[in-house]
Design goal:
Number of domains: 2
CATH topology of the largest domain: Rossmann fold
Number of strands: 13
Length: about 425
């Protein structure tokens, strides 16, 4: 399907719909709240009973600017309800995790997507719309369609062999494009890619998403939409890898990488990113591996970028290890554990990985702090307040949280992997 841009010549808001949002995490919960604010009747579905209870109490279990206030309004107004049970709905949005294995194969795990599909199947009625928002490898939407068709032989689903055939259920893939800390703002303004298993499905999804965003609505096919999300994050990963590789080179030859990048970026066509302790989060650290798994012989640059970024924590650990071994009485403080500044998200965090490795290797000599450290589950870290951390002889800047950026350079040995004092 060629790319088209959806426009609504009437300029009218779509009629309110009954919508089920499956998965109430960092994407699903803000999306559910925003749809409820737009006037839809929304049921947020999650398998975690504590998440369901907190949402129904109008309490936000994630940190996202503006979300707590919005959640209270839409829950109190009866527009958003959370449940562990799947309702009958006119539209279903799936926003569940798609992790990747770390066994060397880096294969995508679609079990959460398929579990959501299996929950939806018995509740489907003719005329329903299903939108998969979870980041997926190319072909995942069609696997979902096949699974639905097996579960509901009484309904007709899109068939790639007959793209213009009549269907009972419309299927679309639409990847989210938001960043933690700006989720609500970007949900309402970012362009959306809507990959329909049929052209009419993409157009139908566009009418729904027009109630959510003022951004462009870009219509294409499902496989192209799946690939575009992976390409976007692989592009960012490659650029971060360039900055991280520069930091390794500068360390080897005795140059300040921050000064070097600042000077280079004065060129009118150069914009080098900032290096860090690695790359984390559920998108950039994961999605490029989906491309590598699909085309391992061709994705050489993408694989190399992933290996550079995945290897950066080793470099940081080695730097700190050298200082700790040089003075057996020394202690080190890790400032920041989240995957990026000013969020409470620790998924795939290189800072957390570094802190855990150092804690295992140097028991009793490593302390950590992070504004949201209380949210980390199942860890053996020694978490302290900031003033206590700054008493250590080695200060490791890992995540440039706002409150850390305001600190003057501390006394003692500084390992500034996150650019806190540049």
């Amino acid at each position: 399907m060629a790319l088209t841009v959806y426009s609504d010549p009437a300029g009218t808001a779509p009629a309110p719909q009954r919508i089920a949002v499956v998965g109430l995490g960092y994407i699903g919960l803000p999306t559910a709240a925003a749809l409820a604010q737009a006037g839809h009747q929304v049921v947020g579905v999650d398998v975690n009973p504590s998440v369901v209870a907190s949402v129904n109490a109008g309490e936000c279990h994630i940190v996202e600017p503006g979300l707590h206030e919005l959640l209270k309004v839409v829950v109190a107004g009866g527009k958003l309800l959370a449940s562990q049970e799947m309702p009958a709905a006119q539209a279903y949005l799936i926003a569940v995790p798609t992790p990747v294995s770390h066994d060397g194969r880096f294969a995508p795990d679609l079990s959460y997507v398929f579990a959501a599909t299996d929950m939806i199947a018995p509740r489907l009625e003719r005329g329903a719309l299903i939108v998969l928002e979870s980041t997926c490898p190319v072909g995942a939407t069609r696997q979902m369609i096949s699974r639905l068709a097996q579960a509901r032989p009484d309904l007709s689903f899109p068939d790639p062999a007959s793209p213009d055939g009549e269907v009972d259920v419309d299927i679309v893939y639409s990847p989210e494009r938001v960043i933690p800390g700006r989720t609500l703002q970007e949900l309402s303004t970012n362009a959306r890619v809507l990959g329909g298993a049929t052209q009419s499905a993409a157009q139908r999804a566009a009418r729904l998403y027009r109630s959510l965003t003022s951004g462009e609505l870009l219509l294409t096919d499902d496989r192209s939409a799946e690939m575009v999300k992976l390409v976007e994050n692989a592009f960012r990963d490659v650029n971060i890898a360039f900055a991280n590789e520069l930091s390794l080179i500068c360390d080897r030859i005795g140059l300040n990488v921050w000064d070097l990048i600042s000077l280079a970026n004065h060129h009118p066509r150069v914009n080098i990113l900032r290096p860090g302790p690695g790359v984390g989060g559920h998108c950039i650290a994961i999605d490029p591996w989906f491309i590598v798994a699909e085309a391992p012989e061709e994705a050489r640059l993408i694989r190399a970028a992933r290996e550079i970024n995945d290897g950066k924590p080793d470099f940081v650990v080695n730097k700190i290890r050298t200082h700790l071994l040089a003075n057996p009485e020394s202690t080190a403080a890790c400032l920041g554990l989240a995957f990026k500044p000013d969020v409470d998200d620790f998924r795939e965090s290189p800072a957390l990985l570094i802190a855990e490795r150092l804690t295992r290797e140097f028991p009793g000599r490593i302390v950590c702090c992070d504004p949201h450290a209380a949210l980390i589950e199942d860890h053996a870290l020694t978490v302290v307040e900031l003033d206590q951390a700054l008493d250590c002889s080695i200060i490791v800047g890992l995540v440039a949280h706002d409150e850390y950026r305001r600190l003057p350079p501390p006394h003692g040995i500084i390992v500034d992997a996150g650019g806190l004092w540049t």
